[in-house]
Amino acid sequence: MRRFHILFLCTHNSSRSILAEAIASTHPSQMFIAHSAGSSPGMAVNPFAAELAMEMGYPASKLRSKSWDEFEKTDSPKMDFIITVCDSAAGEICPVWPGNPITAHWGFPDPSQVTGSDEIKRQAFREVMMGIRLRMDLLASLPLGKLDSMSMQQELKKLAQPSI
């Protein structure tokens, strides 16, 4: 079975993209080799994102904020998909990625901006996690090995629709 490299981008790579990396990496289909990065990393991984990622079985040792510079090098893994999960990163000028990855924007609200009790914050992170998981389930259900690039691009963009 072919596995697909997928890179999730968010400006700081501390919450949404970390959750997406963990979800795709632990997806039951085992179709994805997931990565995440940001244009301005350096913040610590949000503790609520880390908590959920580890609950999914994602190793704590892999939870770190990374620069997208790590993935634009010629010796970097060739990405099949690059998905932005925050509106800020979607609006930035991204590097030229090796290969010809299929790109899409799956925008989610920033759960780290939610105020209130820890339970309210956890719920915001869970909602983002469920939205990403739904899109990953739908992506995994597609016949990816049989679709041409244009069809995959269309399908990936369809998954961005909030009506899913």
Automatic annotation (TrEMBL):
Q: What class of enzyme is it?
A: oxidoreductase
Which residue windows are transmembrane per the record? none
Q: Where is the Phosphotyrosine protein phosphatase I domain?
A: 4-142
* Protein's UniProt keywords contain Oxidoreductase: yes
One term of GO molecular function: arsenate reductase (glutaredoxin) activity
EC number(s) from the headed UniProt entry: 1.20.4.1
Enumerate the UniProt keywords alphabetically.
Arsenical resistance, Oxidoreductase
Report any one BP term from Gene Ontology: response to arsenic-containing substance
Gene3D superfamilies for this protein:
3.40.50.2300
A Pfam family assignment: LMWPc
SUPFAM superfamilies, per the entry: Phosphotyrosine protein phosphatases I (SSF52788)
Please identify the protein, giving its name as recorded: Arsenate reductase
Question: What organism does the record attribute this protein to?
Answer: Candidatus Nitrotoga fabula
Lineage of origin: Bacteria, Pseudomonadati, Pseudomonadota, Betaproteobacteria, Nitrosomonadales
